[in-house]
């Protein structure tokens, strides 16, 4: 098997992209890269430091003071923001409500894409996000585009928040947040969420985690014997 094999997974929020990506990475012995966590960490930094997203000069300067690193434990992706563990905080609603605007910013995306592309130059990786198969790795040999029924997605996200002890957010608020993010992700000017022409659609509305992993592995296996 050759080195720097990239599996790109794109799709809507709360479709289980990271669940599939982590499972694939564990099964194949690849590195898992959570690109969405990078944008969330940047968003957290901007919120903490009251960075005006409309001020390009301040955004550019802020990005020079952000150091992101991934640490993997049991194929769970943990991210640090300037050496601080923020894996849980970036999943809370304040970040969720602002991440689409931050991730749509041209300067932010260009910086994150450069970092992501460096990660794929020498390692076998599974990376999930919104534009991995279209912008970050357009020549990736295998691409998936994940989708699911919006109500199912909201229920999954709501249960995730509950499991982390967040009992203040309602299911209706989660549903509205996902609808807003879908609109922002698909209509932004910079690298909008769109299915790559050669991406395999994976609708997991009615699939278990084991079933979606089997679906993906069946399509990965031919690449491993080349």
From TrEMBL:
This protein's record includes keyword Nucleotide-binding: yes
SUPFAM superfamilies: P-loop containing nucleoside triphosphate hydrolases
Primary subcellular site in the record, as a coarse category: cytoplasm
Catalyzed reaction equations: CMP + ATP = CDP + ADP; dCMP + ATP = dCDP + ADP
Keyword tags: ATP-binding, Cytoplasm, Kinase, Nucleotide-binding, Transferase
Catalytic activity, EC: 2.7.4.25
GO molecular function: kinase activity
Nucleotide-binding as UniProt keyword: yes
Residues engaged in binding ATP: 11-19
Localization per record: Cytoplasm
Leading EC class: transferase
Cytidylate kinase domain span: 7-219
Family affiliation: Belongs to the cytidylate kinase family. Type 1 subfamily.
Name of the protein in its database record: Cytidylate kinase
Species per Swiss-Prot/TrEMBL record: Pedobacter mendelii
Gene this protein is translated from: cmk
């Amino acid at each position: 098997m050759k080195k720097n094999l990239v599996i790109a997974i794109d799709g809507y929020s709360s479709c289980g992209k990271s669940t599939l990506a982590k499972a694939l990475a564990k099964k194949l012995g690849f590195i898992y890269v959570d690109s969405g966590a990078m944008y969330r960490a940047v968003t957290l930094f901007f919120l903490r430091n009251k960075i005006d997203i409309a001020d390009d000069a301040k955004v550019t300067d802020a990005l020079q003071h952000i150091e992101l690193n991934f640490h993997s434990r049991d194929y769970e992706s943990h991210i640090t923001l300037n050496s601080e563990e923020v894996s849980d905080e970036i999943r809370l609603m304040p970040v969720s409500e602002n991440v689409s605007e931050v991730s749509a910013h041209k300067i932010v995306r260009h910086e994150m894409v450069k970092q992501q592309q460096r990660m794929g130059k020498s390692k076998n990786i599974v990376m999930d996000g919104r534009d991995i198969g279209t912008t970050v790795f357009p020549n990736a040999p295998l691409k998936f585009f994940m989708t699911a029924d919006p109500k199912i997605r909201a229920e999954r996200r709501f249960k995730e928040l509950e499991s982390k002890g967040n009992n203040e957010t309602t299911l209706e608020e989660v549903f509205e947040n996902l609808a807003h993010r879908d609109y922002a992700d698909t209509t932004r000017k910079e690298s909008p969420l769109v299915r790559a022409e050669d991406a395999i659609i994976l609708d997991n509305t009615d699939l278990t985690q084991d079933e979606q992993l089997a679906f993906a592995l069946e399509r990965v296996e031919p690449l491993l014997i080349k």
